[in-house]
């Protein structure tokens, strides 16, 4: 199944994603005059921050709706696939990606595509879901799907590797790993809480179900998660774990 995105829904329930990206942007250290690709740029919030640092930034995203939102900010953004980046070889000083790579199915193809467009010695800087990311949410979704009569495997839509596994993958694709770390990041959810998160970040899973079952699955998963991810005052926290990398082509 394919994950789909609604820019307004994402801004409402997923704005924390770019709000928590300061650390990986520090690793990128965009410099004036550099040409940088923002891979999976979404609605362009981080692309704009890279541009404002003086870099010549280009965005790429597979969602036409998100690309339209990014273009509305005056950004140079193209619709395209991470596994077949539609730019010339050796044309970027850096490739940057935040909260995207866990959606990519063929990482070897994606890494080969990234390496192709980087200049020799160019850097690949990214952050995405790592081993243990949203573990409780994943278990609850699988259980909710089964209780509602569907295969639990419908929720197997992401890739969350360990640092060791991903370092070997990077090296196997010709990169030199400079740093790779796993970062636990419990993340408060505000408007919409867990229900809003599920309807945004599991939208593709829900859309694969009959329309009448979608709310039932989301509500069942939310109910299962309440004892472990909701506090006494009703506030929700998602059990995020991020993998942050910097590697050289």
Q: What's the story with the biggest beta sheet?
A: 7 strands, mixed
CATH classification, class level of the domain at 7-134 and 158-188 and 240-248: Alpha Beta
Q: What is the mean predicted local confidence, pLDDT?
A: 92
What class, by secondary structure content? alpha/beta
Distance from first to last alpha carbon: 32 Å
The CATH architecture of the domain at 7-134 and 158-188 and 240-248 can be given as 3-Layer(aba) Sandwich
How are helices and strands ordered from N to C? HHHEHEHEEHEHHEHHHE
Can you walk through the features of this model?
- The structure is a single chain.
- With 249 residues, the protein is α/β, with parallel strands linked by helices.
- It has a domain at 7-134 and 158-188 and 240-248: Rossmann fold (3-Layer(aba) Sandwich), CATH 3.40.50.
- It is 41% helix and 24% strand.
- It contains eleven helices and seven strands.
- Strands 3-2-1-4-5-7-6 form a seven-stranded mixed β-sheet, with helices on both faces.
- α1 (7-14) packs across α9.
- The longest helix has 19 residues, at 211-229.
- It starts with 6 loop residues before the first helix and ends with a strand.
- The model has no long low-confidence stretch (mean pLDDT 92).
């Amino acid at each position: 199944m394919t994950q789909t995105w609604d820019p307004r829904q994402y801004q409402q329930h997923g704005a924390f994603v770019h709000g928590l990206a300061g650390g990986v942007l520090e690793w990128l250290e965009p410099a004036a005059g550099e040409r940088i690709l923002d891979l999976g740029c979404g609605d362009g919030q981080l692309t704009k921050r890279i541009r404002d640092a003086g870099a010549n930034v280009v965005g790429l995203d597979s969602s036409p709706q998100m690309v339209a939102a990014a273009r509305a900010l005056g950004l140079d953004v193209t619709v395209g696939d991470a596994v077949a980046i539609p730019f010339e070889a050796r044309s970027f000083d850096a490739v940057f990606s935040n909260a995207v790579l866990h959606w990519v199915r063929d990482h070897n193809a994606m890494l080969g595509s990234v390496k192709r467009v980087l200049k020799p010695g160019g850097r690949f800087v990214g952050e995405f879901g790592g081993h243990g990311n949203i573990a409780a949410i994943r278990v609850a979704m699988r259980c909710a799907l089964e209780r509602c009569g569907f295969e639990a495997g419908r929720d197997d839509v992401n890739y969350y590797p360990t640092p060791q596994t991903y370092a070997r993958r990077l090296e196997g694709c010709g990169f030199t790993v400079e740093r790779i770390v796993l970062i636990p990041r419990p993340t408060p959810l505000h408007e919409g809480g867990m229900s809003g998160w599920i309807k945004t970040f599991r939208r593709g899973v829900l859309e694969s179900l009959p329309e009448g079952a979608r709310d039932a699955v989301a509500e069942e998963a939310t109910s299962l998660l309440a004892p472990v991810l909701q506090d006494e005052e009703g506030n929700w926290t998602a059990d995020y774990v991020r993998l942050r990398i910097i590697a050289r082509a």
